[in-house]
Structures are given as structure tokens and as C-alpha cells.
From TrEMBL:
InterPro entries referenced in this protein's UniProt entry, alphabetically: HATPase_C_sf, HATPase_dom, His_kinase_dom, HisK_dim/P_dom, HisK_dim/P_sf, Sig_transdc_His_kin-like_C
Enzyme class: transferase
EC number: 2.7.13.3
Protein name: histidine kinase
Gene Ontology molecular function terms on file: ATP binding; phosphorelay sensor kinase activity
CDD domains: HATPase
Catalytic activity, as annotated: ATP + protein L-histidine = ADP + protein N-phospho-L-histidine
Entries under SMART domains matching the protein: HATPase_c, HisKA
Amino acid sequence: MLNSLSGRFLILTVIFVMLAEVLIFVPSVARFREDYLLDRLERAQIASLALLADDMLSEGLERELLDNAGVYNVVLRRDSMRQLVLSSPIPGEVDHSFDLRDAGAWELMRDAMMRLLTDDAVIIRVIGAPSRDAGQEIEVTMDTADLRMAMVDYGLRVLVLSAVISVITAAMLFVAVRSLMVHPIKGVIGHMRRYAEAPEDARRIITPTARVRELREAEVALQALETQLTQSLRQKERLAQLGGAVARVSHDLRNILTSAQLFTDRIEMSEDPAVKRMAPKLVNSISRAVSLCENTLAFGRAEEPAPVLTLFNLSNLAGEVLEAERLAIGEDDISLSEDIPASLMVRGDPEQIYRALSNLVRNARQAIAATGRAGEILVAARAEDDAWIIEVADTGPGLPPKAQEHLFQPFQGGVRKGGSGLGLAIVAELIRGHGGTLTLARSDERGSCFVIRLPMGGMS
């Protein structure tokens, strides 16, 4: 109950209403004290007027007038003269004097709180202006015991009334909050749970019904989110089914093409000039088809295993990559070089870094070879404060803008005719497994440059 929204709102409402009543309580008690003292002054003035009307009042009647007024004596100032009109023995010395004629609000509240918090009864002198201009000043002496009892009684009644008002107000707000906010929120939560059970079911998408603007905006946003999620799940399901079908087709097609490769080996030995001229093209076409099937099957398998991190010499690894690519260059005029410090040690998985560099260098070689012109490929590396930077740069034709938009997305970033668009996607996945990043630093008519950044964090 207390941990719920409505429960906490109920408690806060009671607290805030009580605080408001406390702020009202102090001036209310001060006002009550002022009215009490003014009432005593008015009674004393009436008693003094009775004595002035009949100068021969008995001592008993005079005491009765003072008792009814609740004071010990009365002093009037009339015609610039002070006159002790009524008097009786005062049981002690006057402790304090209060002039109500020019007392401010803060002064009245301060005096009222001091009197309310003080248990001891004292004698005070109260000065005020007579009602209806019956003189310049009236002064009475009185005990504070009755005053404090009356203030306590009034204060308790105010507090009880405040508590009742707080409870009634809190209950009304509690009911209002539950009906206007809590119930709609619980409805949204219940809907979200039902939707989570079968997010592919479009019938479970929420329909906004809230009348409160903020809740309706939340329902509209949730509706848009669920609609988009349902569509995405349906699309992913279709893609998964399509991917399974493509994988099965690629597997069977790879077997067929592998057999075809065996036949082309014999065709190449034919002495027929036409066969000799067409055989290399057939072999290349079949090789590209086999490569596409293998890449598709490799990408369709589970994600790459976590890298086994070790310290290895990057210069030696890059040399192996470049040496393997030199064998594939053939008659193309492409030079391969490296600019890596011989002592540079890098922390990573050597096998996965080899695959990443091999893919990048192979892509660069194939891009240059497709132009029919000479070109260069450079693998450079350096160590910075918190990372190792590996760059693979080439002097090829650069990447077209459309290819750069989907560069690291599988089946979309391919540039070379017959390519699958999986090479860079695989490289990016391998580098992400190391906690690093693969970015295209530049690509224009002067060539392209890919940058691998491997963080040094976690070195022992």
C-alpha cells in the first residue's frame, strides 16, 4: 500500500495539508489572543463606564465588575489625564506590558507563540484604545492563566479540524488519483504484459483510450513502438526463413559447383583453342560462385567465437598476410608493403586479426585489379596512449557513395561484381569482438583507407 503510487500520494497529501494548516495555525492563534485581549479591554471599559455613571458603587459590586471583566484593575486616560477607575489587589508584579494599538502581525504571532509555549501564569498589562473613542487610552492588568487555557483549547480545536480536513481531502484525492491515474497505468502495464506474451500478434497492440492527456500521449507512443516492433519481428521472421532457405540452397549449390570445378580442370587441358580461351573465364565464374556460397554459409552460422587474447608480433602477422596475397596477384602490377615497427606487440587473437587484415588487403587488391592499372597497398600500425592503430590503405578507385552508406552491413556493402558484401561485415564483427572499431578514414579517387582501433585496456 505505502509503496504504491496512490499510497504515497495519500501520505504526501496528508503531510502537505497539515503543513498548510500549521501555517494557518500560528496566525489563527495570534488572532485569537488579540481578540481575547481586546474583549477584556472592552469588558473593562464597560465596567469603568458603570462606575463613572454612579460614583458610589459598593466594594462588592466593584469586585464583581472586575471579575466579569477578567482583570485586576482598569485605568482610563481621558482628557489627557490617567484615572484608576477600578482596582483590586494584584497577586504579583507585572511581568510584561503589551500595547495593542501599534502591534504588528509578526509581533502578535511571536507573543502568541511565547504565551502558548509557556506554562507559568504571570501578570501582564494590556494597553489599547477605548471603543467608540471613549477616551485616549485604556489599560488593564490581568492574569495569563485563563488566556493560555483559552488559547490551548482553541489551538486543539484548530488542529483537530485540520486533521479532519486533511483526512477528508487526502481520501478524496486518493480516490481521484486511483481513478484518473493508477487504474489507467495498471491497465497499460497489464496490456504490456499481454503484448509481451505474443508480440507478433498485431491484435495485442494497444489502442489509446486514456482521457488524461499525458497518459494518452504515453499510450500513443507505446502504440507506435509496438506497431514498429511487431512489423520488425515479422520481417525478421521472414528473413530468418529466407536465410534458412538460402543456406540450404547455398550448401547444395556449393557441392554442385565443387564438382563443376573438377570438370573444369580437365577442360583446361583441352587443346581446342576456343576451349582454352573460354576455360579461364568459366573457372573464374565458378570460383566466384563457390566463394559466394562459402561466405554465405559462414555468415549464416553462429556468431564468431570470443577471441583468445595473447600478445603477438603484429609485423610478423602482417608479413604473413601480405605474402599470401602476393601469390594471388599474378600478372597484376600491384605492390604490397608494410610500415609496422618490428618490435610492436599487440594484444588480440592472432587468427582473427589475420582474417581481418587478409579480408581488407584482399578487397584492396581486387579493387585495384578491377581497374587494370598499377597500384599500391600499405599496411601500417602504431601504438597510441590507449590503443593500437592499424591502417590498410590503397591507391584504388575508392568506394562509391552508395556503397559507403551500407559499408559494414552484410549483403549490402559489396562493390566488386560477383562479391557477396560479407567481407567488411565479417571484419567489423571480428574487431568488435576485441572491443575495437573498424572505420573508413577516407575514400576518394586517390584510394581508400580503413582504420582498425584496438583498445589496450585489460593488458597484463
